[in-house]
Each structure stands twice: as C-alpha cells, then as structure tokens.
Amino acid sequence: MPRVDGMTDSNRPPIDFPSRIGVWWASETWAMPNAIEVAQEIESLGFGSLFIPEVTGKECLTQSLAFLSATERLVIGTGIANIHVRIPSAAETGARTISSLFPRRFMLGLGVSHAPLVEHGMGKTYAKPLATMRDYLEKMAAVPDVIEPGSGRPVRLLAALGPKMIELSGTHADGAHPYLVLPEQTRVTRDILGPDKWIVSEQAVTVGGSPEEQLQWAHQHLNVYSGLPNYRNSWLRQGFEESDLVHGGSDKLAKAIVGMGSVPAAAASVKAHLDAGADHVVLQVLGDDPMADPRPALRELASEMDLV
C-alpha cells in the first residue's frame, strides 16, 4: 500500500494526503466564510481531505480554490465535477491552475451525472455515458502544455461504478472515486485497476440518534439515488435484488451501504474500504439535513480513528 503522502514505486501522480481518511461534505448552501471554518476544523482534527459535490448549487472549482487557500495541508477533491457543467478545455485549464498553485493537494473527480439532472435540470442531452466521458477526457488531454507550463496535468478521478467506466478510469485517468458501494466493490475496483491507480472510496455513516433515527437518515440519504439507473444497476451488480431498490432502499440495502450503530461501528465501515484496497476513504456524515454541520460527528469519529 502507498505511504500517506501518496508516493509509490509507480509513476502515478502523487497526492500529499496528511492521513488516509477524509470527509465528503455538501456545503453548497453554506456561506463560503462559514464553510471555510468547517474545512479548517476538518484539517485540525487530522482528516486528510475534503471532497465536495457539484449538483445544482455552487461551482466546484471556485469552491476548491477557496478551501485550498484557507487551509495548509488539506487535500481538496471534487466528488464529482459534472462534465456537463463546463467544456473539457475549461475543466482542464481550471484544474491545472489550481494544481499549479497548490501542487499535490487537488484531485479533479469527474462524472457523467444522471439523465434526469442533465436533461430536465440543465436542458442538455444525456448521451452514452462511457463514450461521452472518453471523448471528454481525450479533449482535456489535448489541451497544450503551454497552458500553466510546468505544472503538469491535474490528477483525475472518475465516478466509476460499472466495469467499463472503471477500466476507463485506469486508461484515461488516474483512478476512481466509488460512491455508495460496499467494501467488496472497492476490492473489485482495485482488481480491475491494479496497484498503480488511485482509489478514493466514499462511505456514508451515522453518528448519534436512536437506531430508528439512524435507519431513517440512511433511507432519506438513499431516496434520490434509489431512483437513478446508475446506482440501481450498481447495487444489482453488488448482489442486491430488485426488491431492495424501493424508494430509499430496503432496510437490508441501507444497513449494508451506510455505516450505522456506534461510533466504533461507523469507523469500522470506513476502515473496511481501506482493507479492501482503497488508498483513501472519505466519510459522509448523515442526519436530518444533508448539508448540516458535520463537525460534532467528525469530532467523535476523529477521536475513534487512527487518522494516520
């Protein structure tokens, strides 16, 4: 396994993670000065990264630059930057600029998003995901080296669930960012990619509340995803059945995907992805409000985990 700083004997681009466990947090409804305070405490608690989404709110490259500027060692990643939001050259040059200012501290996670969001929310065409992503990456790679000379291209991860997209994350990118998967799927991803590509897996957890409340939070979290073909197909490949794919997921699905119970149980669900071959795991704290302040739960988790 790689050292914390990401240096290996392979030629993959290095990332200086302060620790192997980070945070996935949607801060889109937060005023940026307040969100920065959260990022700064995430860093002070010993977490190694902050990964942020891009759905319908804030533009993620601007947010990434703000978080990097306000922290010292924290790695910032996009989980994920929607390729339908910007043309390939804008994604490449924007990420190069960030990487040149904060070398080895930024990961550009890219994803094809979902048909309902792209077609109804953005008024665009959702074509074949694999071909669309391959074409996008090839156009990014074609941006000449005169743009941010000497900085090199940014480290790219793909939101990869199916085997073909995982393969593409190895041939055309630097690895994968699995989301809402079991540790066994992280192992499958590692088997496909081999040892020389990055895997940054996401793991949702609950902290506090009664068992009934934790299960409710998990179902609430899975509600939107359970209606999206990408995730439905992913869960079927992972061994779940059609009966598990009801809105919000079955209890079986929710309990398997989300780390529930005690703080040690939540921490163990994160460690399981590391044991399965992830280089880095970003935990996502669930509750009544998906954009609530994660710090109370993160303080408990940080005291439980060996973050280095």
Automatic annotation (TrEMBL):
Keywords from UniProt, A to Z, are: Oxidoreductase
Q: Ranges for the Luciferase-like domain?
A: 29-241
Q: Does the keyword Oxidoreductase apply?
A: yes
CDD domains, per database record: Tetrahydromethanopterin_reductase
The record ties this protein, via SUPFAM superfamilies, to:
Bacterial luciferase-like (SSF51679)
Q: Which Gene3D superfamilies match?
A: Luciferase-like domain (3.20.20.30)
This protein's superkingdom? Bacteria
Q: Name one GO molecular function term.
A: oxidoreductase activity, acting on paired donors, with incorporation or reduction of molecular oxygen
In Pfam terms, one family for this protein is: Bac_luciferase
PANTHER family documented for this protein: 5,10-METHYLENETETRAHYDROMETHANOPTERIN REDUCTASE, PTHR43244
Protein's UniProt name: LLM class F420-dependent oxidoreductase
Protein source organism: Mycolicibacterium sediminis
